[in-house]
Every structure is written in structure tokens, then in C-alpha cells.
Design goal:
Blueprint (H helix, E strand, L loop, with lengths): L17 E2 L2 E2 L5 H17 L3 H15 L5 E3 L1 H7 L3 E6 L9 H14 L4 E6 L3 H13 L2 E7 H6 L1 H9 L3 E5 L6 H13 L5 E3 L10 H24 L5 E5 L4 H7 L9 E9 L11 H4 L1 E5 L2 E5 L24 H9 L3 E6 H15 L5 H14 L7 E6 L7 H8 L4
Parallel strand pairs: 4-14, 5-6, 5-8, 6-7, 9-10, 9-14, 10-13
Antiparallel strand pairs: 1-2, 3-4, 11-12
Helix pairs in contact: 2-4, 3-13, 4-5, 4-9, 5-7, 9-10, 13-14
Length: 406
């Protein structure tokens, strides 16, 4: 049941910011006050008709929504089974689903009187989207990014700089997404009065998992209506890649009450889920724990600390996962599968060469699962994939990985 809040009641938190046993509010006194300011502002904003009018206008005339649902007929034929449909979030302005929540977060930052937004980014899509929204609305933007990801995703780094964003390289630890989050939070702690922390997924302390899911719910609401119009029925499977899990929650939200629809999140198996430190399969190999102010499934090392992780897709190499996903797994609402780096690259090329669509490596994990699953299902079945982003940012990296194969 979708509530007036815009989210299915099954993925709304309680008053303590908990989804079942997962999530929660941060205990640090200064951060707790800042988070309460964000939560109060968010709840007030979504009751304001002027906000909804402004957001609808931006989504239509700036982002280019609704994004279409496309039947990947040649890819489906090649797989030899179910029909594969793509929710084309890659066609949004800035090239991914991230712009949906970034516009909402920057509107909230302005409403709270902040002059600056601060965030982390992995693949750079959140960074580009936030820098875009900040430029549009006249706010400063500071993005923290691991040096490993900066090297892999330099086209997005260039975009952020062109948009006027300050990019802060992070070299500590594994120098990827988790370290970027740590660095961004530390910077935010010194600027609580003037800055707004704009988390890039359904992770972190309350209210961020709920708030980002709210802004991303447009994806699922559109997709459900579009697939019904296109096929006359609901899909048998809906799937999306899961790192933190924002694009997946956005799609899944609209199908949670449909018993006939199987909901599948696809996480990165990297070089194999049995190779420690070389995957980011949090749901498959993780345990219940805490990371960066919230409780979720998390990959831990022998010392009980968040472990090293790996994915060919920079936006997925995170040792935790959104609390909604953690709770959905425990409740049996959704299942979580894996795709390896090799399967991801195969799907990247297949979609590019059969459909003329170059996907983000993150999204290619979901495509890989859909291709694998399609071969096991009859041609009368339908799989709906959230194609969460386009692969412009990944082209140079893929060229170095595939070399003569191209």
C-alpha cells in the first residue's frame, strides 16, 4: 500500500528511524541535532504544495521525466527466454537516477538556509548530479571521492569541476566509497551551521534512508504504470543493482504489494564471493552490524571492522547496504543475487552491441542477472530492469580492461 508519504508502508521506518532492527538515529550530540534539523525540514517540506509543484516542474522540464520503459527485443532474443524491459534512468539529465534525490536534497538545503552541500561519491554519478543541482540553485558544492575512483571515473570528475564543484581526493584506506563517506562526514562536522550533508543513497542515519527513498520512488511509480500500459500485465521479475541501494528501492517501492512479482537486488560478486576483500556481496556474505551511524548487513573483517571490498563498478564497492534492503531480506520481501565482474563486462558489451545502449557498470550487474534469469524463464515471462545509469563514465576503464577483446 502506497501511503500519502509516497512510499509503500512496508519500507517506512518507525519513530526511531528503524526498519525492523535496521537503520536508526545517530548518537553523536552535534550530529543528532543536525539530523533532527534535516528530518524536521524534510517532513515540513513534503507537506508543502509549493514544493511538490516545483519538484514536478523540475522532474519534467529539467530532468526529462518520465524516463521510458524500453523492450530490449534483440537482447531478449539472444538470451532465448523471457522478455527483458529496461527502465531508462540512463536518459535522465546527468545520466543516472541520482538527479531525482539530488534535486530534492538541494531544495531542502535551500529551505534550511544552507549555503553549501557536501557529499561523497563513488562512481561520480551522485557527485555530478549534486553539483548540477547546486549550480542550478546557486549553492556551493563539495564532493569527497576516493583516489581509486577518481582514476577510474575521471570523466565524471571533470564534469564536477566544470560545474563549479570542489572535488576533495581521499587517499586513506582503500581510497574508495567508504573512505569518501568518512571524509565527507568529517568535513561536514566542521560546518554544521552552514552546510547540508547530501547522502547519495539509502544509507546513513535517519532520516536519509527514508528521504532518499522518497525522492527515488518516482522511478517505481512510473515504471509500474508504463509496463502495464506496454504489456497489459505486471512483470514476473523486477531487478536492480544494489550497492547502497537507492535505485533499487526506487523501483521496488511500487511492486511491494504485488505477490506475483519477484523482487531481486543484484550485488557485486567481484572476483568471487569466496575471495575475501575481492567482492562487495553484503547481503550474501555479510552479517548484522553497524557502519557509519546505522545498522545493516555489513561485511566485517577478522577484527570486527568493515572489511575491504571490491567491485569493477565504483558505485557498488561499499561494505554496507541500505537498512530497507536489510529488512526486506529478513522479511522475505526481496531476494538478493550476485553478478561477478566478468558477468558485468559481458552484459555491458551485450547491451551495447545488441541494443546500442551503453550501460553504467553498476547497472550492468542487473542486466547480467536479467540475462541469466531470462534464459531460465519462458518467452511469455517479463523481466523489468532498472537501467540506473549510462556508461559514458566507464568507457575508458572498460577499454583498459577488455583491450583486444574489442
Amino acid at each position: 500500500m502506497t501511503t500519502q508519504h509516497g512510499l509503500n508502508a512496508q519500507i517506512l521506518p518507525n519513530d526511531d528511524g528503524l526498519f525492523g532492527q535496521f537503520g536508526g538515529k545517530i548518537g553523536h550530540p552535534d550530529l543528532a541535532r543536525a539530523m533532527q534539523e534535516v528530518e524536521d525540514g524534510f517532513r515540513e517540506m513534503i507537506k508543502d504544495p509549493h514544493f511538490h509543484s516545483e519538484m514536478r516542474d523540475l522532474l519534467k522540464n529539467y530532468v526529462g521525466r518520465p524516463s521510458p520503459v524500453y523492450h530490449a527485443a534483440r537482447l531478449s532474443e539472444a538470451c532465448g527466454g523471457a522478455q527483458i524491459y529496461l527502465k531508462r534512468e540512463d536518459l535522465n539529465h546527468t545520466g543516472a537516477h541520482k538527479i531525482n534525490h539530488c534535486l530534492g536534497e538541494v531544495l531542502l538545503a535551500k529551505r534550511l538556509g544552507k549555503r553549501k552541500v557536501i557529499a561523497e561519491t563513488g562512481a561520480g554519478q551522485h557527485g555530478v548530479a549534486l553539483a548540477t543541482a547546486a549550480a542550478l540553485m546557486g549553492l556551493e558544492c563539495e564532493i569527497h571521492m576516493g583516489v581509486v575512483d577518481i582514476a577510474k571515473e575521471h570523466p565524471n570528475v571533470s564534469r564536477m569541476k566544470i560545474l563549479g564543484c570542489k572535488v576533495v581526493p581521499v587517499s586513506r584506506g582503500a581510497a574508495t566509497l567508504k573512505e569518501a563517506v568518512d571524509s565527507a562526514f568529517e568535513s561536514y562536522m566542521g560546518q554544521l551551521d552552514e552546510a547540508f550533508f547530501a547522502i547519495g543513497s539509502v544509507v546513513g542515519p535517519a532520516p536519509y534512508p527514508e528521504m532518499v527513498a522518497y525522492f527515488q520512488s518516482v522511478v517505481g511509480h512510473e515504471a509500474r504504470a508504463q509496463i502495464l500500459e506496454k504489456t497489459g500485465r505486471l512483470p514476473d521479475v523486477v531487478c536492480a543493482c544494489v550497492g547502497g541501494g537507492s535505485n533499487a528501492i526506487g523501483l521496488f517501492n511500487a511492486f511491494l504489494d504485488d505477490a506475483s512479482v519477484r523482487i531481486v537486488g543484484v550485488e557485486p560478486a567481484g572476483e568471487g564471493v569466496d575471495v575475501p576483500g575481492r567482492h562487495a556481496a553484503t547481503m550474501t556474505r555479510g552479517v548484522v552490524g553497524e557502519i557509519q551511524g546505522f545498522k545493516c548487513y555489513v561485511l566485517l573483517d577478522d577484527d570486527g571492522e568493515p572489511s575491504a571490498v571490491h567491485s569493477i563498478a565504483s558505485g557498488l564497492d561499499y561494505p554496507g547496504v541500505g537498512p530497507q534492503h536489510s529488512n526486506m531480506k529478513d522479511m522475505g520481501i526481496a531476494s538478493y543475487e550476485c553478478a561477478t565482474d566478468a558477468e558485468c563486462l559481458d552484459a555491458f558489451l551485450a547491451l551495447s552491441r545488441l541494443e546500442g545502449i551503453i550501460p553504467a557498470l553498476e547497472s550492468a550487474h542487473a542486466v547480467a542477472y536479467a540475462m541469466r534469469e531470462a534464459a531460465r524463464l519462458p518467452a511469455t515471462s517479463a523481466i523489468l530492469v532498472n537501467l540506473s545509469g549510462r556508461g559514458d563514465k566507464d568507457i575508458d576503464f572498460v577499454l583498459t580492461k577488455l583491450g583486444d577483446k574489442l
